[in-house]
Design brief:
Helix content: 10-25%
Strand content: 25-35%
Radius of gyration: 21 Å
Structural class: alpha/beta
Largest sheet: 9 strands, mixed
Order of helices and strands: EHEHEHEEHEEEEEEEHEEEH
Oligomer: single chain
Length: about 375
């Protein structure tokens, strides 16, 4: 059987999920090459820092919307049937404040808190929050069942599934996208390179996408468990600050956030922001701490900072033919620019990449 050789550049949730889907086709010989791997914690490597969860934020009819629709059934199946993946179901509430309209955080969350949210028929147990159950200062919102992901378990689980299917995983650095073609484990030149380098696509030679930018996020991970996932459309502490609470599966702790700071590369936690985050999260979810207690009752595991790989034009999934130094043409399929929704679009995006790989390999076979 003739195998198509594929190199996937990047081992975040996008690269690993793409490798997993492609590895189910025995016609593909796949190598994952990455500077950072699960178990690493580096500001360049976004996936370990994520919450991570499924809070639909795309607009109906957009490509991202389809990616979210395609991803939900896969996460629901894993939460139901594969506890070793580190995903569990969570009761979820999302509140809306009209005074937040026009801020970056509110715009990001606008679809999540709409009265006529498109995902009302996708996510289980969806209902508009009754007025009697709204928090003071809020004027709407939705509740539904979603999932929260323990990234410390899920990323290694993805690697293990890839290895089981014959994928070769290796560390490496490509300064130019064309360099990746020579990194397949067989020693052969790759037929297809899949670019899943996230924010590194800003500087990766041959890509250098100047529409990429970081959106800094800061969180506090605690041991307290409010037994709910919650968020709200804004804060009174500034337009770039956010409030969300999500309890990870299987001992992963509870994530308290956060912020959405455009173009900030700062890797160190801001102590003042950390205090504001903890206070806001207790206000949003009083059950985080015993009655009458404040942030002193939070059992802190760590403070963390991650950079969301944002892209002005949204997620980029497309095929490009790139000229290599030796004069040959290389087929590159891009999958990056996932912003703060890499997990909740991961399977949908990987399905789209899989279709492009099929087209590319089929075309090459005819040449």
């Amino acid at each position: 059987m003739t195998h198509a050789t594929i190199v996937i550049l990047g081992a975040g949730v996008s690269g690993l999920t793409t490798a997993l889907l492609l590895s189910r086709n025995e016609r593909y010989s796949i190598t994952i090459v990455a500077k950072h791997m699960p178990g690493d914690y580096d500001i360049e490597y976004a996936s370990p820092w994520a919450g991570a969860n499924m809070l639909p934020v795309s607009k109906d009819g957009t490509p991202s919307n389809q990616y979210e629709r395609d991803t939900w059934p896969e996460f629901a199946k894993l939460a139901r049937d594969a506890p070793e993946a580190g995903i569990h179901f969570q009761n979820t509430v999302a509140y809306r404040r009209s005074k937040d309209t026009g801020t970056a955080v509110s715009d990001w969350m606008s679809e999540l808190v709409r009265d006529d949210a498109w995902f009302r028929d996708l996510m289980p147990d969806f209902k508009a929050i009754p007025k009697s159950e709204l928090l003071p200062g809020t004027d709407g919102g939705n509740s539904f069942t979603s999932v929260c992901i323990n990234t410390a378990l899920y990323l290694p689980w993805l690697v293990s599934q890839c290895l089981k299917n014959g994928v070769v995983v290796r560390r490496g650095i490509a300064d130019h996208i064309a360099d990746a073609a020579s990194l397949h484990h067989s020693g052969k030149r790759a037929d297809v390179v899949i670019n899943c380098t996230g924010l590194s696509s800003l500087r990766l030679g041959g890509v250098e996408d100047r529409t990429m930018y970081p959106a800094r996020g800061q969180i506090v991970v605690v041991r307290n468990d409010p037994k709910i996932m919650a968020t709200i459309s804004g804060t009174d502490d500034g337009p770039e600050e956010a409030t969300y609470v999500m309890h990870r599966a299987a001992g992963g702790g509870c994530v308290l956030g956060g912020c959405l700071q455009k173009d900030s590369w700062e890797s160190q936690p801001d102590p003042g922001l950390a205090i504001r985050i903890m206070k806001r999260c207790i206000e949003l979810c009083p059950k985080l701490v015993p009655a009458g207690k404040g942030i002193e009752a939070l059992s802190i595991i760590r403070h963390s900072v991650g950079l969301r790989p944002m892209r002005e034009r949204g997620i980029r999934i497309e095929t490009e033919r790139i000229a290599c130094p030796e004069g040959k043409q290389l087929t590159v399929i891009h999958d990056y620019g996932h912003g703060g929704y890499g997990y909740q679009t991961s399977y949908g995006c990987s399905m789209a990449v899989e279709r492009l790989v099929q087209e590319a390999v089929g075309t090459q076979a005819k040449l």
